[in-house]
C-alpha cells in the first residue's frame, strides 16, 4: 500500500483523466486555436512591413506598438469579461480584431502614413483578448482543485509548443505565400477560436454579481501584484535569453545555432511543465513558488560562464526546466486566492506583466548585446532569476496566510 501511495504521486495518466472529462478536450482544442495567433501576431506584422517598406525600424515600431497595446488592454478586457461575461467580450473583440487586421493590411498596401498604420496596430492590440486568462478561468470553472494544476500544466505546455511553431508558421506563410498571409491566418484563427469558445457554454464562468467593492479590481490585491513581479521576472528572463542566444550564435560563427538553442530552452520548459503537472505535490503552494523560483535562479548561473555551444545547449535546457513550473505555480496561487468575480482580470494582469517583462528583457538585452556581447546579456537572465527568487521570498508570509496547502 505504501509503495502504491508513492507511485501515485507521479503519473502522466493525470493528463488522460483530465482530457477525458466532458468538454475538457474541446476546451483545450479551442484554446489552442485561439492562442496560436498570440505567437504569430507580432512576427507576422514584422514580416509584412519589412517586405513592403524594406525597413525593419518601421516594422519593429508597429509590432512594438501592437504588443504594448495588447499588454495594456488585456487587464481591461479581463475586467470586462468578469463583469459582462467572456461570451460578450469574445463576440465584440473577435469582430473588431478581424476589422483591425484588414485595415492594417489595406493601409500598408496603400502606402499610408506610419501614424495611420500604428493606429490600426493599436486597434489589433486593443482587440486581442488575454487568451491565457480566459482559458485558465474556464478551467477553474470546470474542474476540481485537484485537477486544476494538471489543467494549468497542460495549458503551459501548449504555450511552449505554440511559441515553438507559431513564429515558424508565420515566417513560412509570409515568405512562401504572401507577406500578409500570417496576419490573415491570425484573423481567421482568432475569429474561429472565439466563436468556438462562445459556443462552449459548458465552460463559461458564472458571473459573480456580488463582489466586495474594495476587491472589485484584481490589481488592488497585494498577492496579484506580488505574482505579477514573478511573471515579469520570467518575462525578462525569456526576453534576455532570446537576445543572448542570437548574440552567442553570431559570436561562434553559426547564426542558425540560435534557433536550436532557443528550441532546447523551450524543450526544457516543456519537459519541466509536463513532469510538474504529472506530480501530485504535497508541498504548500507558496513553498512551491519559492522552490521553482530558486530553481530558475540556479539554472541561470551556468549561462554566465558558458562559452562552448555544447555546454550552452545543456545550460539552456537546465535554465528552461523551471520556467513552466514557476508559471503554473503562479496560476494556481492566483486561482486559489482571487475572488471568482475578478479572476479573468487577475490572470490578465499576470499575462501583461509577463509581456512587459519580455519586452524589457529584449530591449535592454539588445542594447547590451550590441555594446558588449552575449556574456553580458546572461547577467540580465541571472538578475531576472534573482528577482523571481526575491519576490517569492518576500511574499511567503502573505501567501502562506492566504492560500491553502496543495492537495496531497
UniProtKB/TrEMBL annotation:
GO MF entries: transmembrane transporter activity
All residue ranges annotated as the Major facilitator superfamily (MFS) profile domain in the record: 218-408
Keyword Transmembrane helix, does the record have it? yes
Q: Which domain of life is it from?
A: Bacteria
What keywords would UniProt list here?
Answer: Membrane, Transmembrane, Transmembrane helix
Tell me which Pfam families the record gives: MFS_1
Keyword Ribonucleoprotein among record annotations: no
| The protein's name in its UniProt record | MFS transporter
User: What organism is listed for this UniProt entry?
Assistant: Serratia proteamaculans
Amino acid at each position: 500500500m505504501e509503495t502504491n501511495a508513492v507511485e501515485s504521486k507521479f503519473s502522466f495518466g493525470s493528463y488522460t483523466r483530465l482530457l477525458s472529462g466532458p468538454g475538457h478536450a474541446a476546451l483545450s482544442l479551442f484554446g489552442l486555436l485561439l492562442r496560436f495567433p498570440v505567437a504569430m501576431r507580432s512576427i507576422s506584422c514584422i514580416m509584412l512591413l519589412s517586405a513592403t517598406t524594406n525597413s525593419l525600424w518601421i516594422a519593429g515600431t508597429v509590432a512594438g506598438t501592437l504588443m504594448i497595446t495588447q499588454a495594456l488592454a488585456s487587464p481591461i478586457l479581463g475586467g470586462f469579461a468578469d463583469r459582462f461575461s467572456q461570451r460578450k467580450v469574445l463576440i465584440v473583440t473577435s469582430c473588431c480584431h478581424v476589422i483591425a487586421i484588414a485595415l492594417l493590411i489595406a493601409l500598408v498596401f496603400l502606402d499610408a502614413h506610419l501614424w495611420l498604420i500604428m493606429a490600426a496596430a493599436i486597434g489589433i492590440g486593443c482587440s486581442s483578448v488575454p487568451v491565457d486568462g480566459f482559458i485558465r478561468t474556464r478551467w477553474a470553472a470546470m474542474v476540481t482543485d485537484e485537477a486544476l494544476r494538471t489543467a494549468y500544466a497542460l495549458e503551459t505546455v501548449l504555450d511552449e509548443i505554440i511559441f515553438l511553431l507559431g513564429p515558424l508558421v508565420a515566417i513560412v506563410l509570409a515568405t512562401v505565400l504572401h507577406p500578409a498571409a500570417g496576419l490573415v491566418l491570425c484573423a481567421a484563427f482568432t475569429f474561429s477560436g472565439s466563436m468556438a469558445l462562445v459556443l462552449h457554454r459548458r465552460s463559461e464562468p458564472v458571473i459573480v454579481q456580488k463582489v466586495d467593492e474594495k476587491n472589485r479590481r484584481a490589481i488592488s490585491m497585494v498577492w496579484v501584484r506580488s505574482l505579477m513581479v514573478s511573471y515579469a521576472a520570467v518575462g525578462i528572463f525569456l526576453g534576455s535569453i532570446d537576445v543572448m542566444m542570437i548574440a552567442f550564435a553570431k559570436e561562434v560563427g553559426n547564426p542558425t545555432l540560435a534557433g536550436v538553442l532557443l528550441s532546447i530552452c523551450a524543450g526544457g520548459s516543456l519537459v519541466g511543465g509536463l513532469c510538474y503537472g504529472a506530480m501530485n505535490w504535497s508541498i504548500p503552494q507558496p513553498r512551491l513558488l519559492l522552490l521553482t523560483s530558486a530553481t530558475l535562479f540556479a539554472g541561470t548561473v551556468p549561462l554566465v560562464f558558458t562559452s562552448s555551444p555544447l555546454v550552452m545547449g545543456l545550460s539552456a535546457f537546465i535554465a528552461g526546466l523551471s520556467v513552466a513550473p514557476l508559471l503554473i505555480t503562479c496560476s494556481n496561487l492566483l486561482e486559489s486566492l482571487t475572488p471568482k468575480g475578478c479572476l479573468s482580470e487577475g490572470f490578465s494582469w499576470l499575462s501583461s506583466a509577463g509581456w512587459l517583462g519580455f519586452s524589457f528583457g529584449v530591449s535592454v538585452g539588445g542594447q547590451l548585446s550590441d555594446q558588449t556581447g552575449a556574456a553580458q546579456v546572461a547577467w540580465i537572465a541571472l538578475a531576472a532569476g534573482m528577482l523571481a527568487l526575491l519576490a517569492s521570498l518576500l511574499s511567503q508570509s502573505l501567501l502562506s496566510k492566504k492560500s491553502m496547502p496543495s492537495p496531497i
